[in-house]
Design brief:
alpha/beta; about 270 residues; Rossmann fold; about 15% strand; 6 strands; single chain
């Protein structure tokens, strides 16, 4: 399916989830449950009564996107992505890292970032750190250091990974808490840019991504979640968080769909 076909389907918000399912990867396939909520990723977790509740609730419709978006890449830092190894091996170096499961999401984020830059859409990067981060209640929930290898500096641990490194002129906002909207100047920046839509991906799905998505929706932005461009330490957290965000707070979209949407804004 090409971008023109995808955009035509995106414009048909009521029928989109039904029509698109044959063209999506497993992470975003829809079931027959009214053809609306993408469920393949967490289907085995939602059984019996819960299926009936989802069916009856009416949640999960596409909200749709606006015409003036910004892309938010959440915490794509060395200390969270870690090494290109299985998660338990990666955690020996970076105790809070995701390892290969996190790195598997990077190409999707690169696709979105490239399309945003090509379309002249702002790309804003976030990084956990800065004044107050170490003393925050959010940080005190974890008792391990950011980096366990004494040969690796805190500066290196805090750095954004090379494949997603900001270009000159792109904003990098330090945040002390999970949500990028809390304790940062993001709202003022988005208001100045007249942004009506935020596209969010990064790490981790159940933590900083979800917190930022919830706050974005609370501030009345249209929200898209890059469903193949986020990852979590726990499989169950990844699945349930995507389900929850897709039901209530944002539109789950693949990087291919978002790329087409962004490139459709050019010129």
């Amino acid at each position: 399916m090409n971008c023109l076909e995808l955009r035509e389907l995106l414009d048909k918000s009521e029928t989109y989830q039904t029509d698109i399912r044959e063209h999506r990867s497993d992470i975003g396939k829809t079931s027959e449950r009214k053809g609306r909520l993408p469920v393949a990723l967490w289907d085995e977790l939602v059984q019996g009564r819960d299926q009936e509740v989802i069916r009856a609730s009416g949640y999960g419709n596409r909200r749709g996107l606006g015409s003036n978006p910004a892309v938010l890449i959440i915490d794509a830092q060395n200390k969270f992505l870690g090494t290109r190894a299985d998660i338990l091996t990666s955690m020996k170096t970076y105790p809070a890292s995701l390892g290969e499961e996190g790195w598997a999401a990077v190409p999707a984020l690169q696709k979105v970032v490239r399309a945003a830059r090509d379309a002249g859409v702002p790309v804003i990067h976030t990084a956990h750190g800065g004044p107050g981060a170490a003393a925050s209640a959010f940080r005190r929930k974890r008792k391990t250091p950011d980096v366990a290898d004494p040969s690796i500096s805190q500066e290196e641990a805090d750095a954004i990974v090379a494949p997603l490194a900001p270009l000159p002129g792109e904003l990098v906002l330090l945040k002390p808490h999970a949500s990028i909207f809390f304790g940062t100047p993001l709202m003022g920046i988005l208001n100045t840019l007249r942004v009506d839509t935020v596209i969010i991906g990064g790490f981790t799905t159940s933590g900083c991504v979800r917190a930022s998505v919830v706050d974005a929706a609370a501030n009345n932005f249209n929200v898209a979640v890059v469903q193949d461009g986020c990852a979590d330490r726990l499989t169950v957290s990844q699945k349930v968080s995507l389900m929850d965000m897709g039901m209530k707070y944002g539109d789950l979209m693949t990087s291919e769909e978002i790329e087409c949407y962004l490139l459709g804004l050019k010129g």
